[in-house]
Amino acid sequence: MTATTTADPPAVARSPGPRRRRRRRWAGRLLPLYVGLVIVYTVIPIAVMIVFTFNQAPTGRVGFQWLGFTTFWYRHVFANGDLTAALETSLKVAVLSSLASAVLGTPMALALARYRYRGKTLTDIVLFANIAAPSVVVGASLLAFFLQINFPRGLWTILVAHIAFSVAFVVVVVRARVSGLDRSLDRAAADLGATPWVAFQKVTFPLILPGIVAGSLLAFAMSIDDLIITSFVNGQTLTFPLWVYGAVKTGIPPQVFVMGTLIFLGGVLIAIASSLYARRRAV
């Protein structure tokens, strides 16, 4: 006696109705439209700045009335000595603070990502409190600190302040990179006879280098355009944002727009180079 089994009839795939297809079509278009609007909203002020670097300004001050095309301001971008000195100060502080933040933040990120120690939770709280704290609070606390120790305000206080608020961002970025690494690579290097320093130099450091570079660039960008914290600790030293803020009362010279355009294009070139490098490594 043989047992017979009856197979279930194959399920018939139902095609989505016209209303569902229409809903999917609108959903597929809505997100790209939203992204496009956000990009346009972000790019318009930058585009206006770039366009008016080519505008004639008979009074030597920026005006938003088109008076004719000129490249005069690009040929005389460093004609204003005070503005050029302020830009040099901003670049100097940004470079030094980003390098110092990377040097201080990378070991801290390694410790937070790989080790357990007493006070680790408190360290996390302090780092994220530094990131979440308003700039006015950070600037006022640094000013009180420098006044308490009677330290003269100037270039060095600006540098210390920028390192103080940048190092936390470097730690967060590098820590995220370290957390994604495979610890077996370090153990494999140790099995092959590498010392901890050689393992770090040959294995860990090349893997976390993109995170260090990303954190340093973030620190550089935050430093070069900081206004609020710098205004508390600058003394008589002027950075590029402080100079521009002071010039608003009398009129901004077109060289400000030219320098802003050059800084923006420098950031675009760095982003393109980083993207090409990542694509080449992925191939």
CATH topology of the largest domain: MetI-like fold
What number of structural domains do the residues give? 2
Query: What's the total count of β strands?
Result: 0
In the CATH scheme, the class of the largest domain would be: Mainly Alpha
Mean pLDDT: 86
Biggest sheet character: none
- CATH architecture of the largest domain, by name, is Orthogonal Bundle
- Please identify the structural class as seen in this structure: mainly alpha
Compute the gyration radius: what is it?
27 Å
Give a brief rundown of this model:
The chain has helices at residues 18-51, 72-75, 81-114, 120-132, 135-148, 155-179, 184-191, 196-224, 228-233, 240-247, 254-282. It is mostly helical and 283 residues long.
Outline the structure in words.
The chain folds into 2 domains: 25-54; 80-252, MetI-like (MetI-like fold), CATH 1.10.3720.10. Helices cover 72% and strands 0% of the residues. The protein is built from 11 helices and no strands. It has helices at residues 18-51, 72-75, 81-114, 120-132, 135-148, 155-179, 184-191, 196-224, 228-233, 240-247, 254-282. Helix 3 (81-114) runs parallel beside helix 6. The radius of gyration is 27 Å and the shape is globular.
Write the layout of secondary structure elements.
Blueprint (H helix, E strand, L loop, with lengths): L17 H34 L20 H4 L5 H34 L5 H13 L2 H14 L6 H25 L4 H8 L4 H29 L3 H6 L6 H8 L6 H29 L1
Helix pairs in contact: 3-6, 3-8, 3-10, 4-6, 6-8, 7-8
